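Hi everyone,

Forwarding the result from last night's run.
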Amino acid sequence: MGQEDLILHLTEVRKRLIIVFAWFLVMLCAGLYLSSDILLYLKTQPMIGEIKWNVFSFTDGLMIYMKCAFLFALLFTVPVMLYQLWAFVRPGLTEAESKSALPYIPVAFALFIIGVAFSYWVVFPMMVRFMMRMNQTIGAVETYGIDRYFGFLFQIVFPMAIAFELPVILLFLTKIGLLTPERLKMSRKYAYIALTITGSCISPPDMVSHLSVTVPLLLLFEISALASNWQWRAMRQGRLENS
């Protein structure tokens, strides 16, 4: 690569980063405007009953407000960032590769949203109810700080949301040839162990709750494996037709 090509690539990277950063700032402003409504909506959800949020320092409310705005901006910046990444590498792809890579962006974003919804509406209430029962069992007075509440919420929601990206990851690895049906079959037992450990770490330590988290993760892996095998066969068929 010559110096001129390097300068062109760096200029293109700078352009893409400026677009992503500008969009992030726009979403951050929107998040700052909507944070109070978002937080009040989360507080009034009846799924875990009424929980009084307490602050133990003057900055607790401000920090949660800023974190909410930042996470809102980050969430809606992810698809723009993925699109800019695709636009940057598109000149080095064939037309077929370019068209096949573009659908990964909305699919990845949709799966992330589904993971957030599942963990928030299913996993998080189970965890909170279990912890509240434990606190009541030992006769503790329940006083919940807003900072700890949201820290606990993010600790559960985001690992599950990332786990829901598994289909996109497997399909992408299959697309670039790093994952084959044989390798996937060999790694299935290790994937089961990893997903079972993940489910046990983010679910209450009772059988029903553990199964309600782990089983969807295992089903998600199997669906991803089926999609990966289908894509591999389609790729092989395409190579045979072109040869």
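The chain has eight helices and two strands.

Cheers,
N.
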